[in-house]
Amino acid sequence: MGATWVYLWRSVMKRTSLALFAVVALFALPLSAKDMGGKFGVGVDQTLGGVTGLEFKYFIGDFAVSLEPQFAVWAPKHGDNQFGLNIALGGVYYFARSDQANLGFGAKVDMGYLNKAAHGGGDSTFQANIELPLVMEYYFSDHFAFHVSTGLLFAIVPEKGAALSVPEQNGGLVSRGSAQGFGFSFGGGSLSSSAGFTFYF
Hints:
The chain is mostly beta strands and 201 residues long. It folds into 2 domains: 1-29; 40-200, Porin (Beta Barrel), CATH 2.40.160. The chain has 1 helix and 9 strands. An 8-stranded antiparallel barrel has the order 1-2-3-4-5-6-7-9. It is elongated and about 55 Å long. The protein starts with a helix and ends with a strand.
């Protein structure tokens, strides 16, 4: 009888030890995370500082650099040609990653230029806004993602007037033609004013 109890005890302890080992090993494994290192993406973006349009993005590890160029030319039948150019340049570090979504914080410079005709007949103007976005990117697959952002925005309008129009959800601080000044907003952003999508290769 004693030998039977010893056998049962050893069997239970062996199974318990294996179960504990499996639990410890499970928690010791790193969480599954979306690895975007080396991927290049093309998509559409709306920055907090007023640049909307095509976006090029490249990941270096957990850091993504991006470029958003936008330009427009209008040749009226009467009068001078109008030209506008917007560019956003910056990067985001994704500090929290999961299998389906990444969360990051970054910095961008939004730049806008309008020639005399596009600026309403006044002098040409150049403007630069600075933003510190908090970005959440959700991955529907390895190749397609949707992102939305919020954060800090510093709008700086030069003496000759604004060249960028800040989205309404960021306070509507600045629109084209605004006079010289400085604006600040925190927490702006919505699905309509700070969202975009990216296709990754």
